[in-house]
Write a structure and sequence with these properties.
Radius of gyration: 23 Å
Shape: globular
CATH architecture of the largest domain: Roll
Order of helices and strands: HHEEHEEEEEEHHHEEHEEEEH
Number of domains: 2
Largest sheet: 6 strands, mixed
CATH class of the largest domain: Alpha Beta
Number of strands: 14
Distance between the termini: 36 Å
Structural class: alpha+beta
Number of helices: 8
Strand order of the largest sheet: 2-1-8-7-4-3
Length: 287
């Protein structure tokens, strides 16, 4: 499965992003088939698929597909990706007809289901946000124009998260600012904390480990429904944390949160911090 994952990654990196024809002929089987509802016909064999890749790069000189997630099982690798580009070149061949260049940008989500046999890709079944693509390229109108994100309000919610929840431990605020489908994602935990109740459990756990924990905002940025905060934390290790018994040691760490907002509430928080330093400070990793 690891070999298949590597082949799938090379497909995206070298073929789709770099238009490397040597890799295309190396990885695709002679009976390869590619289907995508955006296009009116399937692309067959390395020669046929070459036509699609060349068309995409002729349409979008900055065309890209970035892998977001992978699921592999047996001869199958399923990849979730995000792709986009600027339409400044040739016409894009689609089920709605050929779309002429408009200079507009697009970025959409998609998924590819690869089947790999004897080191060769034999099938790529793809779904993508075709409507989103056409709306962004100006071919379809958006049925109801969404209101622009309130960046000032989104930043204020992120501040409440830091100041009222993380610093003061006001769990009731979580019900006000956290979406029911919330996920808190951090590398030190094997699974996200989900929903308001799951996140309350994490906050209680963190504040039990460091009762005097203090988050200080160092930098911040806001872009539509995304808010980024770089923070510094300090605290005293007085409770179990990541398997480490209390040490009474004072800790200091830095990290970054990226918030995704939805309708005035926090939908996700992705966290990354200096976990190596933190674990060394409380003795999980020996100096």
């Amino acid at each position: 499965m690891e070999e298949n994952r590597l082949i799938a990654r090379r497909y995206f990196t070298e073929i789709m992003n770099m238009a490397n024809m040597d890799t295309l002929y190396e990885l695709l089987s002679p009976d390869f088939i590619f289907t995508l509802p955006t296009h009116p016909e399937s692309y067959r064999g390395p020669d046929g698929f070459k036509d699609l890749v060349m068309m995409l790069h002729s349409c979008f000189s900055d065309f890209y597909i970035h892998v977001q997630d992978m699921v592999s099982s047996g001869d199958t690798v399923v990849t979730r990706w995000r792709g986009g580009g600027t339409h400044t070149g040739g016409a894009l061949h689609t089920v709605k007809g050929d779309i002429q260049a408009s200079g507009k940008k697009f970025e959409i989500d998609g998924m590819t289901w690869h089947r790999i046999k004897n080191g060769k890709i034999v099938e790529a079944l793809v779904n993508e946000d075709t409507v989103g693509l056409m709306v962004q390229l100006g071919v379809l109108p958006f049925p109801v124009a969404p209101p622009p994100p309130d960046e000032k309000a989104n930043l204020a919610v992120a501040h409440r998260y830091i100041n009222e929840v993380m610093n003061q431990g006001h769990l009731e605020v979580i019900d006000e600012i956290i979406d029911l489908h919330f996920q808190f994602i951090i590398p030190t935990q094997p699974e996200p904390f989900r929903g308001p109740e799951g996140f309350k459990g994490f906050v209680q756990y963190l504040r039990n480990a460091f009762p005097d924990i203090k988050f200080s905002i160092d930098r911040e940025a806001v872009d539509g429904d995304k808010v980024a905060v770089r923070w510094k934390i300090t605290g005293t290790h007085k409770g179990e944390f990541l398997g480490a018994a209390p040490t009474e040691k004072f800790i200091e760490d830095y990290g970054i949160d990226i918030f995704t907002m939805s309708k005035g509430k926090i939908l996700t928080v992705h966290v990354n911090e200096n976990d190596f330093s933190l674990m060394r400070q409380i003795g999980i990793i020996q100096s």
